[in-house]
Amino acid sequence: MHAPTRHYRHIRKLPHLSEEEKQTLSRVEGEFAFRANDYYLQLIDWDDPDDPIRRLIIPTEGELRDWGTLDPSRESDYTVANGTQHKYTHTALILAAETCDSYCRYCFRKRLTMRRSEEVMNDVRGGIEYIRAHPEVDNVLLTGGDPLTLATNKLRRIIERLREIDHVGIIRIGTKVLAFNPYRILDDPKLIELIEAYSWREKRIYVMSHFAHPRELTEPAVEAVDRLLKAGAIIANQCPLIAGVNDDAEVLVELFNRLSMTGATPYYLFQGRPTKGNAIFEVPIVRASRIFNEAFEGTSGLGRRPRLTMSHHTGKIEIVGYDESQIYLRYHRAAHEENKGRFLICHRDDRAIWFDDLDVVHTFKPGTQETNVLSA
To answer: Which residue range is the domain that position 208 belongs to?
Structure first.
């Protein structure tokens, strides 16, 4: 492995594909942007058409299926300033970048790369001033796009301004760079110095990594994790369950165990959002729950920390389990007070892939007298 020397922004430039494949997939590229670098492309077994790394990064015709929406979680409803969202009481989100080092085919924010987006602000001062004026916000997530595609000096200016706000304790950086291009960390000592300067004993910087398959945990990737840890960052990993990539208990066991041993704590395993172009990546809720529970049988307590969760418009809804007739859910995070801690019992539907596909028959809030039977 070596540092990326080239990025590919057009399918026709890839030397690994036949002319026929390039012609076919250029139609997909015309709808959903393509981007990859030679480091990540080296991880693909090009002789295997079902290679999971290939599926993560190379377009497929199935993406053109008419299905899903561009903003399935309706993030626009929680936009409080240009490039800034405030959905949960204590957490604000800043879309600090509109590009990534490479593009995941299953991305739920692909709308940002399909056209010039007004959702991402190169000037984040409005968002920072909003956070300054809201003392309940003690947790800020920098995302996009990928904040680590920003120049280190620009990232430093954002973090410096956030650290000037006393009530901001945790700064999170959501990034796929550790998987896509670990040399972004390995070859930039100024980035490590930035983490050392602003990840404090009582106010840490969290790097939210995005390893979706164990083969992404290469030696350079593990080294990048180690350098960030030594600089004082806390690393937590989150990724979706992706059909054809990690929808297998053995794959998840290896992923969770290796992440735990490396020091990138497994945090969330997300149910894929019903995003336009993503039908081929979706795993039904019941099957997802079965795979997730089977994976836990092969992990230690440290590997059992992630929650299987849907990032729904109304909140993060944890998939607790299912039986012969019902699916059990719980609001892990809720956008509105009435849903905080709420349990939901739904009719079992093995085809359902999202909360909106389910028929809720009973809801209740533990510790209260509130209960609501919605249907027989």
So the answer is: 75-282
